């Protein structure tokens, strides 16, 4: 749980993590507004929340609480203040920005408008993920799953572990009537290079050289 100590001794990381989660919530809301699908985990949560009649933000907290139990048992080193912020507040960030977008701009009606909305979501979401991950003060319970799987089965690369968890979430999303579309595919396969761009040109520069020394400690 070093992430708690790191955040307390380095407020810059705490601020960057908070800003990252805010932008991540904004990006997820933009994907939702496009109507072309979200990242697999968010899409699954939205589909299950709609089916159960529970508000998205509350359902996300309940699901994260269940996943956190696994993280607490098997992945304590991945727990930090960023874990709590992401698990508890991300859903409210998404709801807040989605309501604003819906009331101010409305849902895009034409396909080209939806595609542009997805493209904007890609950039915003990638920026948020970059800041949140690079701050290195804790990992979200869902993100921890593929890391635990990587540690348990090191002969399989992290990429395939992440693909497995994402594909499973996409399947659940589809079964419960969620949207699987362009946004889902882009989230699964297209965010990496953009996240890397923001890592190099924004997040790591904000954190300074210390991040470069720590990079090998936590590969996501």
Short description:
Keywords: Membrane, Transmembrane, Transmembrane helix. This protein is mainly α.
The helix fraction, in percent, is over 70%
Largest sheet: none
- Number of extended strands: 0
How many helices does DSSP assign?
A: 11
Kindly provide the radius of gyration, computed on alpha-carbon positions and rounded to a whole number of angstroms. Answer: 17 Å
Beta-strand residue fraction: under 5%
Give the overall average pLDDT: 90
What's the number of structural domains?
1
Span of the ends, CA to CA: 17 Å
SSE string, helices as H and strands as E? HHHHHHHHHHH
**Shape annotation:** globular
Q: Give the low-confidence spans.
A: 211-220
Describe the structure.
The structure is a single chain. The protein is mainly alpha-helical and 220 residues long. The chain has one domain (2-217). The chain has helices at 2-9, 11-34, 40-52, 56-74, 81-104, 111-134, 141-152, 158-175, 182-189, 191-207, 209-214. It is globular.
């Amino acid at each position: 749980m070093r992430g708690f100590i790191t955040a307390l001794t380095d407020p810059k990381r705490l601020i960057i993590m908070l800003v990252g989660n805010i932008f991540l919530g904004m990006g997820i809301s933009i994907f939702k507004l496009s109507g072309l699908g979200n990242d697999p985990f968010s899409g699954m949560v939205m589909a299950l929340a709609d089916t159960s009649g529970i508000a998205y933000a509350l359902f996300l907290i309940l699901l994260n609480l269940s996943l956190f139990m696994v993280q607490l048992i098997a992945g304590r080193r991945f727990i930090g203040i960023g874990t709590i912020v992401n698990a508890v507040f991300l859903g409210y960030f998404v709801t807040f920005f989605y309501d604003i977008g819906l009331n101010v701009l409305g849902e895009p009606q034409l396909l080209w408008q939806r595609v542009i909305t997805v493209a904007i979501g890609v950039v915003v979401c990638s920026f948020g993920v970059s800041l949140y991950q690079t701050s290195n003060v804790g990992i979200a319970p869902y993100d921890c799953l593929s890391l635990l799987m990587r540690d348990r089965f090191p002969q399989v690369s992290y990429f395939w572990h992440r693909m497995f968890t994402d594909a499973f979430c996409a399947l659940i999303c589809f079964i419960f009537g969620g949207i699987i579309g362009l946004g889902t595919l882009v989230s699964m396969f297209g965010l990496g290079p953009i996240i890397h761009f923001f890592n190099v040109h924004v997040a790591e520069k904000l954190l300074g050289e210390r991040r470069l020394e720590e990079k090998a400690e936590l590969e996501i």
